[in-house]
UniProtKB/TrEMBL annotation:
It holds the Pfam family YcgL. It comes from the Bacteria. Coiled coil: none annotated. Transmembrane segments: none annotated. InterPro entries: YcgL-like_sf (IPR038068), YcgL_dom (IPR027354). Residues 1-85 form the YcgL domain. This is YcgL domain-containing protein GTQ48_16710.
Length: 98
């Protein structure tokens, strides 16, 4: 199976995988609006790869076959402030005062 991978300028680390280059018919319109103008990153032959950018190959293939697309979200960022507060012996979030 061949798929095309696109990135967005709106959110670093977000990628859209589709089954055909420049064909976004299966991608819901609200998702395309939030994604913005897709920029082609690469074409992938899934059969020749064991790992694909930290994605389970079977899950990616299943999503492409059933939905026609797969959206890869960026990894969740660590909350450095919360981690620092805990290291100081404080609660992870500051008390809110109104």
């Amino acid at each position: 199976m061949l798929c095309a991978v696109y990135k967005t300028r709106k959110k670093q680390g977000m990628y859209l995988y589709v089954t055909k280059k420049d064909v976004f018919d299966d991608v819901p319109e609200p998702l395309m609006q939030r994604f913005g103008k897709p920029e082609l990153v690469t074409l992938l032959a899934l059969d020749k790869r064991e790992k694909i950018a930290g994605i389970d190959k079977q899950k990616l293939t299943d999503e492409l076959n059933s939905n026609g697309f797969y959206l890869q979200m960026p990894p969740k960022e660590d909350d450095l402030l919360s981690t620092h507060r805990v290291s100081l012996g404080l609660s992870s979030s500051p008390d809110k005062k109104f």
